[in-house]
Predict the 3D structure of the following.
Amino acid sequence: MVTNDELIRVVDVKKEYNHGEIKALNGCSLTVHKGEVVAMCGPSGSGKSTLLRCLNMLEVPTSGHIYFDGVDLADKNVDINLHRRKMGMVFQHFNLFPHKTVMQNITLAPVYLKLKTKEEARKKGEELLKRIGLSNKANEYPNMLSGGQKQRIAIVRALAMEPEVMLFDEPTSALDPEMVNEVLDLMRDLAKAGMTMVVVTHEMGFAREVADRVIFMDGGQILEENTPDLLFDSPQHPRLKDFLSKVL
Amino acid sequence: MDWEGIFGNLSPASFFNFSFLGEYGKYLLQAIGYTLLLAVVSVLLAILPALLLAIMRLSKNKLVKGISGAYIALFRSTPLLVQLSIIYFGLFGAVRIPNNWQLFGFIPMSRFIPGVVALALNSSAYVAEIFRGGILAVDIGQTEAARSLGLPAWASMKLVVLPQAIKNVLPALANEIVTMVKESSICSTLGMAELMFAAKTVAGATYITLAPYTVAALIYFCINYPASKAIEAVERRMRRGDKR
């Protein structure tokens, strides 16, 4: 479902820590179109999570530009909160709010930000929970749920904001193996429904099957970018060849 | 009970000459009330300023952070007695409270208010550090999740971080009351008729030099020891409930 409408454009983003001692991102550029699923792969410490977190400014780039819907988020005068509403984010460790029930987790932000009334948010929440088959958990607290359930709820919590793009930061890395598929299935459904997605993942099979484009990163740089078939079957960069030989 | 008959022939310097209890028992009971009121009210008053100080301390703005840091440093690095004296003679030398205001008929406000203010200002510096620890103990992922949903910084603090932080610090806060029950004895130096002052008064009036202080020590112990044991028990239960 790739269209030509550009949603996110990253231009030469650099991220340094400790006054330039550590270079996490070393000039990355990337475009994500509406409806596209982009997977980001690479060894640990390659900067893929940092780049993803730069997209919604959880990490503020040292230099460069991040255009979302044409607005440069790296501009200090931009109210980032308004744009984050449209960028759902899913974390490795779920980060559900433990003091809130499942339903409260889902309705908290839309209601507080006055995007929906309490009833509307609740209805939307019930709808979403039904879709993932967890309607019976609406009034439970997160500590009663399994990892896979937590992550699916976290995805639903982000969806409740009706975002234009979903950012996934290693969404299955903290899960027990038998729970990985329930989360990947949900992500697969989202992709099929046309959601724009950027996914940092170690699940190569998933990337190959679902992604429209795969990005390989190492050393804070995007080394290769291609359709999954070409990237996995005829890798060009020696680092990518080396990486694939170890993980596949 | 005939305290005079039982203890009357003990030496005035005896640890256990409790012969004064008949005459002064009610006075001591009032003093316990005074002490508890000082401790509880001052810690309760300290909570909001402490929360403000803690959030300021965690601010990225250097000035805001500095002001809070200076306040905390000042109150933690000078003796409470000095702070109390400065506030009593300085601040409340300028702001007079009418002498005839009484709380429960035995606590003159003209002394109680300066005492409570001094204890609260002092306590807020310590409670601020408790809150700061409690806020920092909440996983950074909670803030990131809240912010990624588009919640502004203060909303994510209010709705997501603080409710979890406050639950974490409740035992420490209760311990601060226990500390204040003891620390408030310093108010005796400025004539606030709390427990320590009462012991001193009884000793002076009866020439029984030691036993009133024994009684005071026993009372302090009987308040604080069970209280801290109860807090420990609550803390243990909370930790068990935290497994998630």
Notes: The first helix of chain B runs from residue 3 to 7.
